[in-house]
């Protein structure tokens, strides 16, 4: 009996995983094809990207301040407080910036995508589009994916920049001038770190958009199902971001040699 239960769970898991990758592959293949829903893409960019700017600013500011405070306490006994700018920059750009911004956006945007598409499914709007001959993937999924691929790297860059400002606010109280703070940044970072800091949020944006769209388009059980689907999308996308972050970091470490 237990073996049969495990077997059913595994079969469902791999079926869902296969369906997710099929939807992702079809969406990526149809991105460069006509028709192009420019207005829908712009609307989704504003809704999913620009509307998340404040929470990313807030996250970056206080993360940078906390990191600076902790770093200054640790570096002060060694008279190495001048390195605080470089430490914050390297940590935020390569790791904390992309991950924290993506998790914040996943909680806000992932649930919104799922709830919106889930509501369209349970109210049979998606079925009506299919009857009219509308390509659901091109009309509903592709604009949201494109918006996230563009918005999340920009949001991450803003969060990184504001975290450096927050770090300097704390460092100024320890007698560190702007020149000393900025000079320490190139000592801890190389150009590849900037590339890594932009590749990660782009990949995380794909995870957030596709997870929200997949779960939303497979919503069942009416209004109750919409709420459960939104919660499921946030949990899944957050876990996938944390897991994929390790593997992407490992790939960059290998290429760096």
SSE layout:
Elements: H1 2-30, H2 38-49, H3 53-75, H4 84-122, H5 125-131, H6 136-172, H7 178-183, H8 191-217, H9 222-256
Using the CA coordinates, give the radius of gyration. 21 Å
Q: State the total count of DSSP E strands.
A: 0
Number of helical segments with 4 or more residues: 9
Kindly give the count of domains: 1
Beta content: under 5%
Question: How widely separated are the two ends?
Answer: 50 Å
**Mean pLDDT level:** 87
Order of helices and strands: HHHHHHHHH
Q: Which structural class fits the helix and strand makeup?
A: mainly alpha
- Biggest sheet features: none
Helix content: over 70%
Walk me through this protein's architecture:
The protein has 257 residues and is an all-alpha fold. It has one domain (43-256). 84% of the residues lie in helices and 0% in strands. The chain is built from nine helices and no strands. The chain has helices at 2-30, 38-49, 53-75, 84-122, 125-131, 136-172, 178-183, 191-217, 222-256. Helix 8 runs antiparallel to helix 9. The longest helix has 39 residues, at 84-122.
Please sum up the structure shown.
This protein has one domain.
Write out key terms for the chains shown.
single chain, 257 residues, mainly alpha, 9 helices
């Amino acid at each position: 009996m237990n073996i049969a239960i495990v077997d059913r769970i595994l079969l469902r898991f791999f079926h869902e995983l296969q369906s997710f990758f099929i939807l992702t592959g079809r969406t990526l293949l149809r991105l460069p094809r006509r028709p192009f829903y420019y207005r829908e893409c712009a609307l989704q960019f504003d809704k999913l990207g620009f509307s998340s700017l404040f929470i990313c600013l807030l996250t970056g500011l206080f993360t940078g301040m906390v990191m600076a405070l902790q770093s200054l306490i640790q570096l002060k006994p060694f008279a190495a407080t001048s390195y605080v700018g470089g430490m914050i920059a390297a940590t935020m750009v390569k790791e904390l910036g992309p991950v924290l911004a993506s998790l914040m956006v996943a909680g806000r945007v992932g649930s919104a995508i799922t709830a919106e598409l889930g509501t369209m499914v349970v109210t049979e709007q998606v079925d009506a589009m299919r009857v009219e001959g509308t390509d659901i993937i091109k009309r509903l999924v592709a604009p949201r994916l494109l918006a996230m691929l563009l918005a999340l790297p920009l949001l991450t860059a803003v969060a990184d920049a504001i975290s450096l400002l927050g770090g300097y606010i704390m460092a100024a109280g320890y007698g560190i001038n702007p020149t000393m703070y900025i000079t320490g940044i190139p000592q801890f970072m190389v150009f590849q770190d900037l590339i890594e800091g932009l590749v990660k949020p782009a990949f995380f944006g794909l995870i957030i958009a596709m997870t929200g769209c997949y779960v939303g388009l497979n919503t069942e059980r009416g209004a109750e199902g919409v709420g459960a689907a939104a919660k499921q999308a946030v949990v899944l996308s957050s876990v996938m971001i944390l897991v994929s972050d390790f593997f992407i970091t490992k790939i960059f470490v290998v290429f760096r040699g």
